[in-house]
Amino acid sequence: MKGFKYIIAIVFVSLSLSVFSQETKVIKNRRKQLEKQEQEKQKAGEKAVEDGKERHMNIQSKAVKKRMKKQAKRSKALNRQRSGKKKSFFARIFTGK
Fold first, then answer.
1. Overall pTM surpassing 0.85 (yes/no)
2. Which residue in 4, 11, 41, 81 is deepest, having the highest Cβ count within 10 Å?
3. SS3 for 82?
4. Contact, 81 vs 88, CB < 8 A?
5. What is the dihedral of CA 18, 20, 22, 25, to 10 degrees?
6. Are 64 and 56 in contact (CB under 8 A)?
């Protein structure tokens, strides 16, 4: 009788493990779907931003585009200087390490 109880217990444990493994497969598939949807949503958002920037530039007049381009160059140079990536020619010569 004790052996029979052990066999029944082992059968129940093995059945519960197989059912549990199926649930994890479903959960994994759902998680993958959600991640894929999130990535698609992020790509769509980035594309919308790029389209908006392009439309904004197309609306501007020629003079405004020129000013914007000049200001972008100044801003980029200033940011580069602030971050320390590249200093001016004289700064590199006359500053010690």
1. no
2. 81
3. helix
4. yes
5. -140
6. no
61: tokens are 């007049």
CA 87 to chain centre: 31
Whole-number Cα distances in Å, 46 to 7, 43, 58? 59, 5, 18
The two tokens of residue 29 are 């598939």
CA distance 72 to 85: 18
- DSSP annotation of 87 reads -
In whole angstroms, give the CA distance from residue 66 to residue 47.
25
- Give me the tens of pLDDT residue by residue for the chain, a chain 97 residues long: 667 888 888 877 776 766 665 667 788 889 999 999 999 999 999 999 999 999 999 999 999 999 999 999 999 988 887 887 666 777 778 876 5
Instruction: Provide the token pair at 83.
Output: 């971050």
